[in-house]
Each structure stands twice: as C-alpha cells, then as structure tokens.
From TrEMBL:
Keywords: Cytoplasm, Kinase, Magnesium, Metal-binding, Phosphotransferase system, Sugar transport, Transferase, Transport. It is found in: Cytoplasm. This is Phosphoenolpyruvate-protein phosphotransferase. Mg(2+) binds at E407, D431. It comes from Nonomuraea rubra.
Length: 553
C-alpha cells in the first residue's frame, strides 16, 4: 500500500505503525455478563491495575511535570471509592466494561465537586476509563503507547497540542496524519522535533497497526511494508544529503556576503539546545503559549522569567524575540478561556484576548523585562491602533524593542501604519495564508491553499517588506515559509531582513542562500511574482536558482 500526502518535515523515518485511537465507544447500557460475579470483578480489577501500572511507568519515564500528572492519573485508576463502585455494579449484574464506564462517570462528578488539584484533573478520567474499557473489550488502546518496545511511526487523524505534549524524539520516528496542512500544529511540532512528517494523507488511518511503514517527509510518500532494500537506499540518500548540508556553517548570508540572519523558532527551554547546535544566530519566534499548555492557572511571573532568561543565556549577544501568548484557535489555553465562538480563528485570539485578560499580559511583559529585556512581539494584530496599544503596554514595563506579527492581510496592506508604532515586524506566513485564502490551517482538505509559494502570499510579503524598508525598520519572517531553501532565497530577494525557522531546517536554508548571490535572489523573487499559481511561481523562481539542484534541495 502506497499513500501520498504533503511532506512537511524532511527526512526518512521508518518503523512499525502505531495508529492513534482517540476514543473507545461507550459499552451498551445494561450490558450483562455470563459466568461468575467474582471472575468478572477480577477481570475489572486486573484491567484497572494494569492501566495504573502503565501510567505510573510512563510517568517515571517522562519525569518533570508530566510525571506528576501521570502519577495522579495512576492513583485515580485505583482509587478505593472507584474500585468499590465497580465491584458493586458488577454485583448488580453489569458487565465489567459497563460497570467501569458508569463508575468513572459517577467518580468524575464527585471529583469535580471536590475542587483542588484532583478536581482540576477530573477531565483526565475519560482517558483512563477508555484505556480500561479498551483492555476489557480487546480494542485498540486509545492515546499514546505506554513504554513502547521500539520507536514507532505515529499515525493519526490529526494531533492536538495535548496529544503531543508528552511525545519524545526517542519514541517517534515519523508522523503521518490524515488531516492538517503544512502550517498545522502537527507540522510545526514535527519540524521542531526534527522528525519526518507527512500530513493531509488520505487513507492514513487505514494503515494496519504494527506493520512496517516508511515515511518520506520531503516527497510526502508513505509506503506500507516497503522492501528492506528500498528502506536502506532511502536512508542512505537522506544521510548523505544531510552530511553535505552540514558542511555549510557560519551566519546566514548570500554567496556575495549579503547577511540574512538565520534564527530559530522555539516553544520552550527544551528546544534551546537544538537551536544552538544547529547554528541559529538567535531566536526569531519564541512561541510562549507552548510553555503553558494544559495548565488551569496562568504561569507565574517567576516561572516565565526563568524560561525567558534561559533563552537569553542560550544566545548571549544574539537576538531573542519573545512572542506574547497566542491563545485561542489552534492553541487553546485553559487559563485564557474563550467565549463560545462559532469561528475561533476569527475570534478573540492572540493580542485580542489580552483585552479581556489585561493582567495576564501585564505579568508576561513584566517577566520578559525582568529576564533581561528580550525583544517582544504580539500575535494577531490587525490595526495600527492595536499595535499602538501593545507598544504603550510594553514601554510602560520598560521594554524598548517592540514589534508585531504580520499575519492578517489588513496588517500587511497597512504595514507602514503599524510600523510608525513599533520597532520591527515579523511576518507569520502560516496565519497570513490562513487569513488570505480563508482556509483553515488545521484542515487537510484545504492544505493546497497553504502552499507558501502562492503568489498572493508573496505579494503581501513584498508589500510588508517594502513598507519596512521605507521605514528603515527590520522585517523578519517566522512562518513555516522560511524553512524552504528556495523560498528563503525568494524572501531575501523580496527584502526580508531575517528568517526564523525550526532548527532542523537551518542547514538546508543556510546552504541554499550561500549558493546564490543577492542578484540571483532578486531575480528569483521577481520571477516568482510573475507566476499565476503556486506551481508556476516555484518553477519560475527555481529556474533562477541553479545552485539548489546541485545541493539536492
Ligand atoms: C509563525 C506563526 O505563528 P503560529 O504558527 O504560532 O501561529 C505564523 O502564523 O506564521
Ligand atoms: Mg500565527
């Protein structure tokens, strides 16, 4: 079986498939058992104990905050009150799966009412319940595997931030999802982990569990049960290409020495080492919301200060741009709850949400200032008034390098107005394409719209970069578009002053830029904008960039 999707994180990954199941159907109401009550109770107890043991083992392996959460879950699975309830429901004739289902439902209500830490974790009960029921009914286990025997290819319909918070590079060799586009959470996370990934891959969830799968994150090919020799060939070619790229070192620049600083996108302290190792010259986008997913309370000022200080210390003398919390839409944050919104991506997202939670913005800006004053920028800014409000708030806290993201067409079209309020802009091409093409970035069906070569997107970049040049202020790119080596040359030609991307993309972009002069980049930018489709734009630009083929890019 061969499948094809959109390659979003380059490289070859292969291993047995693990197909993520998100829910287990409710056991039928009133279901009974045949046989002895004692046996049925033993079956239920054994399943509860096994799930508790697996959660505990996963906690020990994960360490840190995840350990606390998983151990609390393990305790809940064996809570004496819950156990008594399951046993009594079985005594009343209910089959073990149904007894577990009803006991957990009751237990959740009790736990919610008790408040405190356990009350906050009542939502986890659904996951534990489904695991126990899956065991009892012989269904595929929902959620991620606990202590996997070998690294696996994770296959899913889509992955939410909460699904992936506990994933480790050591366990996952590749991702394949049926949904998602090149700028979806799965794609961003795969790139930040340096794991090959293919998204928008129809039929992915029909891959049988446990079969060998090879994923080519460059071409988008997914091969089920490939010949061993094909795997060896593909891995060999990818390794040789990576080694060739690694020979290009130093700061980002074109062949004729025009500097284009290459920065890293990070989502937390754990990603700083990879950014330094990949030769990033600083951080162009610190996605701070990823520090605080799955938390009921806003992070304290001290905790934030530590995280931002670590980034500044990782890049002494380098640029560090902290983005204020981008809650909402694809990045839901429990401590910044939204009103019920029919279209969350068009609602109170990013900076807009701070209007309702000014104290959260206040704490965050003070923490950045206390950490030593990184540059700071706001997401989801539409107007010059919003930019002015944000700049005032930052200046009040003593922050003097303030920028805004350009990710809404109104902001790109009027970048000149916004730039009178702030010191720099950074173009977020992921959302800029979402809002330009009215295409949800999470949706596989519209992923073609998110091709960063779309000429309309390039026009908006050109308008923004032109406004920044006239204002004499920097204009960076921190969307996923910067990670494509050919497009990076085009963006430099359009006048963008720095490029920020997942650390895993830096080597290829550095090599691509270094193989061309600024004149070639300018010619590629002009050629791309003559295209009337993304494919035309790409072909026209690449024709001006002969060094790419030589590098295998
Ligand atoms: C960089 C961006 O921000 P995020 O992907 O975090 O929304 C973007 O929208 O391009
Ligand atoms: Mg964005």
């Amino acid at each position: 079986m061969n499948l094809r999707g959109v390659g979003v994180s380059p490289g070859i990954g292969h291993g047995p498939s693990y197909v993520l199941t998100v829910s287990v159907p409710e056991p039928p109401e009133g279901a009974t058992y045949t046989g002895e009550a004692e046996q049925e109770k033993e079956r239920a107890m054994a399943a509860l104990t096994q799930v508790a043991g697996e959660l505990e083992a996963r906690g020990n392996q994960a360490g840190g905050e995840a350990e606390e959460i998983l151990k609390a879950q393990a305790l809940m699975a064996e809570d004496p009150g819950l156990v008594v309830k399951v046993r009594s429901l079985i005594d009343r004739g209910l089959a073990a799966p149904r007894a577990v289902f009803e006991a957990f439902t009751k237990y959740r209500t009790v736990l919610r009412g008790s408040g405190g830490y356990l009350g906050e974790r009542a939502g986890d009960l659904g996951d534990i319940r489904d695991r126990v029921i899956a065991l009892l009914t012989g269904q595929a286990m929902p959620g991620l595997p606990v202590a996997p025997a070998e690294p696996y290819v994770l296959v899913a319909r889509d992955l939410a931030p909460a699904d992936t918070a506990l994933l480790s590079r050591d366990d996952v060799v590749a991702f394949v999802t049926e949904e998602g586009g090149p700028t979806s959470h799965t794609a961003i996370m795969a790139r930040s982990m340096g794991v090959p990934a293919v998204v928008a891959c129809p039929g992915a969830t029909r891959i049988p569990p446990g079969v060998q799968v090879m994923v080519d994150g460059t071409s988008g090919d997914v091969r089920v049960e490939p010949a061993e020799s094909d795997v060896a060939d593909a891995v060999g070619a990818a390794t040789a290409r990576q080694a060739a790229l690694a020979s290009w070192t130093g700061p980002g620049a074109t062949a004729d020495g025009h500097p284009v600083p290459l920065l890293a996108n990070v989502g937390g302290p754990a990603e700083l080492d990879a950014a330094v190792a990949a030769g990033a010259e600083g951080i162009g986008l610190y996605r701070t919301e990823f520090l605080f997913l799955d938390r009921p309370e806003p992070p304290s000022a001290e905790e934030q200060e530590r995280a931002y200080r670590a980034a500044l210390e990782a890049f002494p003398g380098g640029k560090v741009v902290v983005r204020t919390l981008d809650g909402g839409a694809d990045k839901p944050l429990a401590f910044l709850p939204s009103a019920a919104e029919p279209n969350p991506a068009l609602g109170e997202r990013g900076l807009r949400r701070f209007a309702r939670f000014p104290e959260v913005m206040d704490v965050q800006l003070r923490a950045v200032a206390a950490a030593g004053g990184a540059a700071v920028m706001a997401p989801m800014v539409a107007t010059a008034e919003e930019a002015a409000w944000f700049a005032r708030e930052c200046h009040d806290k003593g922050l003097d390098e303030v920028g805004v993201m350009i990710e809404i067409p109104s902001a790109a079209l009027r970048a000149g107005n916004l730039l009178t309020m702030v010191d720099f802009v950074s173009i977020g091409t992921n959302d800029l394409s979402q809002y330009t093409f009215a295409a949800d970035r999470q949706l596989g069906a519209v992923s073609a719209m998110h091709d960063p070569w779309q000429p309309a997107l390039l026009d908006l970049v050109a308008i923004t970069a032109g406004a920044a040049a006239r204002a004499g202020k920097p204009c960076g790119i921190c969307g996923e578009a910067a990670a494509d080596p050919a497009l990076a040359c085009v963006l430099a030609g359009l006048g963008v002053s720095s490029l920020s991307m997942a650390p895993s993309a830096l080597a290829a972009v550095r090599a691509g830029l270094a193989a061309h002069t600024m004149e070639q980049c300018l010619a590629a930018a002009e050629a791309a904008r003559t295209g009337s489709s993304a494919a035309d734009a790409k072909a026209a630009a690449r024709a001006q960039l002969p060094g790419l083929d030589r590098l295998g890019l």
